[in-house]
């Protein structure tokens, strides 16, 4: 199969929600990527061990390292990298992704053979990797209701064991990809502009793909590209400040209102905040929560953890530029 021209792609690795798995993800990327590619790594406020590891690797291998000394929202990090890209394609990846051989070649082949502007891989979730599907392409549905236009986004085959569908998945169009891993033609950004930094916590992938489709972009799912989102827990203690800040309620609610205003739609903000943002933010601390509840009761535990979260978030946000 003919490959796309040498160094036609830049891989951009950005922080998703923690730093402790960065080295494992980086080493997986290097081990499983056969294509010739440029690499840009964006680092925002990582702990000293991760900061020093990335700096050493940048010196040794020559990749471009862009660092800020404060936590970055995901679209902020990706936009910092856009100015460093001069290749035809960019592959956005999070710093907690594990790869399989040929993942990048398959995405590039799909783009060449279908004319796709955005390509989504087969994304699994968990450790060991490549066992349970997180998403096999995404769907967006708008529903006209009495109270306005509602929007639903869904993951195809979420939670299905990969072994149950192995060999049966086919390349096909879809409505959106996720930033766990997403290949994009750089020319798309000439039409959409940079990523919307008003979407700091949620829906940023749906927003970008909707903007791209509005500009005429085509989005495809490529099952020959297999990656895994290595989701927490566990969570290193050093990662708690970034993790809690990344999923703070204020960012989440503001992101949802930005999306609704932009796309003239509505959804249940409180339900999404509690059902996804708060639940995901607190998931790694469930064992500690259970122990505290046995000692001091449910109400005191809730109050203590909320106080602790807010203290961490205020400190982190105070370090960001105004």
Please sum up the structure shown.
With 322 residues, the protein is an alpha/beta fold. It is built from twelve helices and twelve strands.
Describe the 3D structure.
The chain is built from 12 helices and 12 strands. Strand 1, helix 1 (22-32) and strand 2 (38-44) form a beta-alpha-beta unit. The model is unreliable at 1-5 (pLDDT under 50). The protein has 2 domains: 9-229, Spore Coat Polysaccharide Biosynthesis Protein SpsA, Chain A; 237-318, no CATH class. It has helices spanning 22-32, 48-61, 74-82, 103-114, 162-165, 188-192, 204-214, 240-246, 249-263, 269-282, 286-296, 298-318; strands at residues 9-14, 38-44, 64-68, 89-94, 97-99, 118-125, 132-135, 138-145, 148-155, 172-173, 181-185, 219-229. The chain is an alpha/beta fold. Strands 1, 2, 3, 4, 5, 6, 7, 10, 11 and 12 form a 10-stranded mixed beta sheet that branches. A two-stranded antiparallel ribbon has the order 8-9.
Q: Please give the count of helices.
A: 12
Q: List low-confidence stretches.
A: 1-5
- Count of discrete structural domains: 2
Strand content: 15-25%
Overall geometry: globular
Count of extended strands: 12
Structural class computed from helices and strand pairing: alpha/beta
Helix and strand string, N-terminal first? EHEHEHEEHEEEEHEEHHEHHHHH
* Cα gyration radius (Å): 20 Å
CATH-assigned fold name of the largest domain = Spore Coat Polysaccharide Biosynthesis Protein SpsA, Chain A
Taking all residues together, what is the mean pLDDT? 95
CATH superfamily heading of the largest domain: Spore Coat Polysaccharide Biosynthesis Protein SpsA, Chain A
Question: So what's the CATH class of the largest domain?
Answer: Alpha Beta
Which sheet architecture does the biggest sheet show? 10 strands, mixed
The helix fraction, in percent, is 40-55%
